[in-house]
Amino acid sequence: MKEINNQDLVRSYLQTHQIESVFNEPLIPHLSLYSYEQGEFICSQGESSQYLYVLVKGKIKVYTTSAEGKTLILSFKTPLEVIGDIEYVQDINIINTVEAVSSVHMIGVHHRWLKKYGSDYAPLLKFLLEIITQKFHLKTNTMSFNLLYPVEVRFASYLLSVSFEDSDSMNKGQLRISIKDAANFIGTSYRHLNRVIGQFCTNGLIERNKGFILVKDRDGLRALAGDNIYE
Length: 231
Description:
The protein has helices at about 5-15, 85-90, 110-115, 120-150, 150-160, 180-185, 190-200, 220-225, and strands at about 1-5, 30-35, 40-45, 50-55, 60-65, 70-75, 80-85, 95-100, 105-110, 175, 205-210, 210-215. By secondary structure, it is of the alpha+beta class. The strands form three sheets. The chain has a five-stranded antiparallel beta sheet. The protein has a four-stranded antiparallel beta sheet with strand order 3-8-5-6. A three-stranded antiparallel beta sheet has the order 10-12-11. The chain starts with a strand and ends in a 6-residue tail after the last helix.
């Protein structure tokens, strides 16, 4: 993680995502911009929550880890997204681990400044309410999607969610994924998903190498997935 000391870029991101009004003027000087490389952690489950983050560039994944060390991917996020909103509102530790899937820029603001300047600022509170309710809506849609659509459609959507087209990346389209995690996420068995992967390889959508999957035909995956429910 690196801090980018560039307030002009912060304001540019606020304007691009049309959230200038979310933060009042006393809060603006306390907004920091952070960059994360692929694979870096933005926050980890169980840690003390100190910052509210706004994702303004790149893609992240959110997952939880059980006491036995098993992980379950919960979602993939692209801008505009907020991390740490529930933790801030409820004043609790970090619920899930958040990891950069691509190079990422996050605007961060410490809780002490939010409490000092934003606790009664209506546009910020309305923004947080909208974000939190969107997350509940997405969770409901994901559960319905996993029940109503075949594994082929769900896996195509999953691949589109975990892959990215990023000019900063050296491995565009090349993914190192856990088949077990993917099966758990889309609600199918390891064996069934392996059969679907073989089918996708035969159809030229992907190529499977040692430990990697190469996405060869994103348009074909999009046509199969339809609306990408996992983002």
